[in-house]
Amino acid sequence: MAYKDILVYADAAPAAAARLDAAVLLAKAQDAHLVALHVGIPPFIPVDLLGTGVSVDLIEWQMQQRQAQADAARNVVLAAEQRHGLSIEWRKLDGVIDDALVDQSRYADLIVLSQDTPLTDLDAPAGPAAGSIVMAAGRPVLIVPKDYKGAAIGRHVLVAWKPSAEATRAVHDALPLLQRAKAVTVMRANPDPEEPAHNPGFDLATHLARHGVKVTVMPVLTPDISAGAAILDQARAMQADLIVMGAYGHSRLRELVFGGATHSLLQAPPVPVLMSR
């Protein structure tokens, strides 16, 4: 089992090179085809309340800016090709970034994005929202730290497990990585007291072992800290280079509201995080 099509978002943001480097590492390890997708945002046409006409110069300036952004993104992709000696397919579309990414993800095994950037109410998103893509795409998303400089992804993997649909989906979406890992630790933080005593992750370990995955189970009781903090602490302690977890959230008045651990790892992942919904 392996990923054969990997989709990475391409732009010229400060995190772009790290994101592409992570995508290339995976593409090489999985012998996968890598697609770099850039989305050009349509020009903003203000409402002409005074009836004086919308300035053509304004539209032309926006078009020039959009082309400059695409050219800069293409140069970042070309630089990654030269650094790694891997051919990357360049794909450019026009539209809404998140919508285009979700549409193109239908034909990919994995999406690679950078961590979410906290925005104020006045900020306009400059790139894809990883949390929104995880919730909408139906494909696993690898979320890469903005300053990522790792040499490999998936040698030492921490699985943040709970017996839920989201975590189950994430684990099975991660199988191509888990099967190649040197070590996989299944962490069950604060097991429910009503769970069977034998099942803080041991049933999952048995299942993964049948897929050839080398698994250690670690039930962790952390009543005084959040699940997100416990996951981060364990990842650092075992020097994990990948975290696998389900994404938990819901929509409230058109806003996505994420669970605590999901929110923490979307915005401040210490290592790449594979999330599925």
UniProtKB/TrEMBL annotation:
CDD domains: USP-like
Chain coiled-coil ranges: none
Gene3D superfamilies referenced in this protein's UniProt entry, alphabetically: 3.40.50.12370
Residues of the UspA domain: 3-145, 155-276
SUPFAM superfamilies per UniProt: Adenine nucleotide alpha hydrolases-like
Family: Belongs to the universal stress protein A family.
Name by which UniProt lists this protein: Universal stress protein
Annotated source species: Ferrovibrio terrae
Top-level taxonomy: Bacteria, Pseudomonadati, Pseudomonadota, Alphaproteobacteria, Rhodospirillales
